[in-house]
Amino acid sequence: DGGITQSPKYLFRKEGQNVTLSCEQNLNHDAMYWYRQDPGQGLRLIYYSQIVNDFQKGDIAEGYSVSREKKESFPLTVTSAQKNPTAFYLCASRGAGTNEQFFGPGTRLTVL
Amino acid sequence: EDQVTQSPEALRLQEGESSSLNCSYTVSGLRGLFWYRQDPGKGPEFLFTLYSAGEEKEKERLKATLTKKESFLHITAPKPEDSATYLCAVQAGGAQKLVFGQGTRLTINP
Questions:
Q1: Residues 6+ apart with CB under 8 A from B1
Q2: Chain pair A-B, CB pairs under 8 angstroms
Q3: Separation CA B53–CA B37 (nearest Å)
Q4: pLDDT digit string, tens, across residues A28-81
Q5: A-interface mutation test, from B97, B102, B104, most A Cβ less than 10 A away
Q6: What is the rounded end-to-end Cα distance, in angstroms, of chain B?
Q7: Which of A80, B73, B83, B104 has most Cβ atoms within 10 angstroms of its Cβ?
Q8: What's CA A75's distance to the chain center, in Å?
Q9: B58-86 pLDDT per residue, tens
Q10: CB neighbours (10 Å) of residue B28?
Q11: How far apart are CA A23 and CA A63, in angstroms?
Q12: What are the start-end ranges of the H helices in B2-110?
């Protein structure tokens, strides 16, 4: 089955800890994205990558970091510098020459 | 600044009662307008892409239309399984990101 997987589904973090959210896709898509979703707000872009070993900041990149060492993988690290990390995190990907972004199932991060 | 506003925030309908959801947008050079469906606790599911005013797309009980300032998602004779949050997003020309509205939460009562 082709698709996007995110893990874990639920993640709990203590204040001051860094955590890494996984995103993997087997759709052979070039571009990958990380969004954050908060209640009552639209999705907001954190980082995106159009090719391996290259990525750009989105609208709310402060306190987050990413890497793109493989085409299939785009992990997101939520650092201790992110002041309000509790949210639903969504990864998406897009194929070359297309405009549609397809989303994974999401990771819900809660800071205790 | 590119903006998307969806209305209403929430809508309750009886099964079989048709209605429309609205997505108003301001964008510098529309590259595409996208509709997604999102179930609670899950990622958005892609529904439609619209590119130019006058375009329409249909899928089962849903039809999306586009004008120069807004898009409508028409739902005809809805069923309880159509209950979900519907998200609208736009992509400006030359931009990578999608700008999302806050969504309309649709509930269909049996």
A1: none
A2: 55
A3: 22
A4: 999 999 999 998 888 999 999 999 999 999 999 999 999 999 999 999 999 998
A5: B97
A6: 41
A7: B73
A8: 7
A9: 999 999 999 999 999 999 999 999 999 99
A10: 11
A11: 18
A12: none
